[in-house]
Amino acid sequence: MEKERKPSQVCDAVEKTLTEGAAEKSADVVSMADSTITVEDIEGELFRIERIRDILVRRESELRYMMDDIQLCTEITRLKQELQKLVSVPESKKSKEDREREEELLQQINKLVETRDFLVDDVEFERLREREEDQEMAAFLKSKLSKVLAAKGALQEQKVASKQTSAPFITKTGLTLVKDCCGFTCSIM
Questions:
Q1: What is the C-alpha to C-alpha distance for residues 88 and 80, in angstroms, rounded to an integer?
Q2: pLDDT digits (tens, 9 = 90+) for 24-47
Q3: For residue range 102-155, what is the model confidence (pLDDT) as tens digits?
Q4: This prediction's pTM
Q5: Dihedral sign, CA of 12, 13, 19, 22?
Q6: Suppose 182 and one of 44, 51, 78, 144 were both cysteines; which one would form an S-S bond, judging by CB atoms 3.0 to 4.6 Å apart?
Q7: Phi/psi class of residue 95: alpha, beta or left (left: φ > 0; alpha: ψ in -120 to 50)?
Q8: Residue 161 Cα distances to 55, 147, 154, 165, 169, angstroms
């Protein structure tokens, strides 16, 4: 004789959860076709994200330069202190090794100072390059925004003409849009 198998309550609970989860997932799915976001909105959001990424990359670079500078300055200070100890010893009491060590310390300090000078020059070059990039981006934004504003203005004029209302129409200027490009204080402005 075969016993009838009853489905366990645990399996029923799991099955119920799975079917409820599937129903909830289908309700959460939003089709791109149903979205009211325009291509310009998407492009604007992508631009803001890229701008924020660029700002973060620049900040990371600045922090790396600062870290290198701190390490160089620390090492230079350490070597100068060691040199000061050797220099404070009278010449008559210095050994040949002391004199050689003085010379070696001077060469190391000189090399580190040259490295730091190169680092400072590199930082200045990066700042100039970033300023140039910002100016190019500002010119690009002005040209792009003027086209977009002109197109939107033409559409708005058509809407206003069709409604024939005398309500004032206020738009953001291109400069304000450039300023609001990423939500941060841009170096463009």
A1: 12
A2: 555 555 555 557 788 888 888 888
A3: 999 999 999 999 999 999 999 999 999 999 988 988 888 788 777 777 776 765
A4: 0.54
A5: negative
A6: 51
A7: beta
A8: 43, 21, 10, 8, 12
